[in-house]
Design goal:
seven-stranded parallel sheet, pyruvate (chains A, B), homodimer, Rossmann fold, 12 strands, 2 domains, alpha/beta, 326 residues
Chain lengths: 326, 326
């Protein structure tokens, strides 16, 4: 009985949609003796009824990108005090409403940065050196019958413009320096103590870059930042890599540019309306897709679990959040 | 008449098979006013007759890997004085016979090393992070219908064993250090002033590595160096990347290990019997192929042309070879 009553007092943490990490690692992903998980996605109840039934008991949410924490959701949870995202980005959380209500917010911190940076570089090499295209070429038995190899372009001395030199962007820069690339960056402000050329104007950076790598967060200032003018400045041989958020690029315009050869290629991990991807690009040899999996490694997901659990346990022990946003 | 007679005195340089670089760049690849090219592959004559007809006039050969310079070929060219390969490796040239005849040999030097190193890293990222597999996953419209993403493994902290720390191997090491990998190497001798752990025994290195990257030259000591024991030591999660020569690996054994899950994956640019590749691996998601194109970039081929022409012009001006082998 004692155990049962102490269990009843554990803070209850809502999860609306199963995070990818939980699909891979199972419930062990966020196992803790200090809080209890409420999995809406496993309930036979429709979500509104599930929430109505449990609303008073929910004091925290674990929020994957696919399950936005809207003002509407927040309003029906009177005792909500903490939101922890399973992503670095928090654009799917209504921060204004959270601030108004005094709800704390933590994100995944920089636990993903290395893996995302690795994927960004992997996609860039793939597009410039045509790794996926070469793989298809061999598997389609074109070698050497069809003599025109997928000829790549040298990575060394390429001018790479990094959009957003935060935790991910700076790791992309370090990696690409080792390949002999020339790094420049754009961001809200010039960074002190950074050896790379700074561009205040992103169109100007695009015009002098062989590739742009999008690593910034999505917010009202970066929404469709990569528009027609930027893509046009990037030019026919220019490559774009996006490991940030789909909506930072004007996707419709990018699709047109790729189809009409107005830019040189793309490596895309994120899309405007996931999981819908622009299928009209599937036939293009110079476009490489991944399913928003830049952050997805077994080791990275295990690390993420520790960060999520650590934030929740810290919060309910009145300790500082590990990776606070609000 | 003066022009014609001076033309007749130009050294004649034989090319038996069209180098890939010439297929891409055209004859401009090795254009020079100081020597004349004899393209056997464009002649209507069968090769033996072509050679019999021109044998006395040939004083140099440009030798791609696909056209070995055998003792038999050398014997029918009494005035041959120089062989220039279009590759870094010279295993397709009978060096013993060249030495006996006093024939000079030059290779492509290190003009390819950066591009080959870039491909090695690209293949490694592709296998660990499943870039090609993710691309297929999206294009086959499995996202998110079929929920099991191709989950990758983190590159950081991976223990990478580099087989042969020469021009290519050391560039692979520099690049992978930037990803936070732990580098070790094996080679004939321990290198002075190198910060990486040295293994004299390759099987021991395989046993303590998450991946082996083959960067050494092919010679009698490295032929099938990566045998059953080494592959077995590498183990179920171990990855192998080969950008050197196919015959350094016991290919039949590697194919068996991959099919039976005894090693974790492979990124293969080279094969034992090119252009024949082990097609029984095509269905495996964890194997990435490229058609001996690790060195192939537009910029690299242009650079190669300069090195080949530079060697031939230097030789016939009695100057030192740019990239001498013999």
């Amino acid at each position: 009985m004692a155990t049962s009553s102490s269990t009843e007092k554990l803070p209850r943490v809502l999860i609306v949609k199963r995070p990818d990490a939980m699909a891979v690692l199972g419930d062990g992903f966020v196992a803790s003796t200090k809080f209890e998980i409420l999995k809406a996605f496993e309930s036979p109840l429709p979500l509104p009824e599930f929430l109505a039934y449990h609303s008073d008991s929910i004091s925290a949410i674990i929020a994957p990108v696919a399950a936005p924490v809207t003002a509407d959701l927040i309003r029906i949870l009177p005792n909500l005090r903490l939101v922890v995202t399973t992503s670095a980005g928090v654009d799917h959380v209504d921060l204004v409403e959270c601030r108004r209500r005094g709800i704390s917010v933590a994100n995944a911190g920089s636990s993903f940065s290395e893996d995302v940076a690795d994927t960004a570089v992997g996609l860039l090499i793939d597009v410039f050196r045509r790794i996926s295209a070469a793989n298809r070429f061999v598997k389609q038995r074109f070698w050497p019958v069809k003599g025109d190899y997928p000829l790549g372009s040298k990575l060394g001395r390429k001018r790479i413009g990094i959009v957003g030199l935060g935790s991910i962007g700076s790791k992309v820069a370090t990696r690409l320096e080792a390949f002999g690339c020339q790094i420049s960056y754009s961001s809200r402000n010039r960074k002190p103590c950074v050896p790379y050329h700074y561009y205040m104007d992103i169109e100007e950076m695009a015009a002098t870059s062989d590739a742009l790598i999008i690593c910034c967060e999505l917010n009202e200032k970066t929404l469709r930042l990569i528009n027609k003018d930027v893509l046009s400045a990037l030019g026919k041989r220019g490559v774009i890599v996006n490991v940030a958020r789909g909506a930072i690029i004007d996707e419709e315009e990018m699709v047109r540019c790729l189809r009409e050869g107005e830019i040189g290629g793309a490596g895309l991990d994120v899309f405007e309306d996931e999981p819908n991807v622009p299928k009209e690009l599937f036939e293009l040899d110079n476009v490489v897709f991944s399913p928003h999996s830049a952050f997805m490694t077994l080791e990275g997901l295990e690390e993420l679990g520790k960060v999520v659990v650590g934030n929740i346990e810290a919060f309910f022990s009145n300790k500082p959040l590990l990776t606070p946003v609000l």
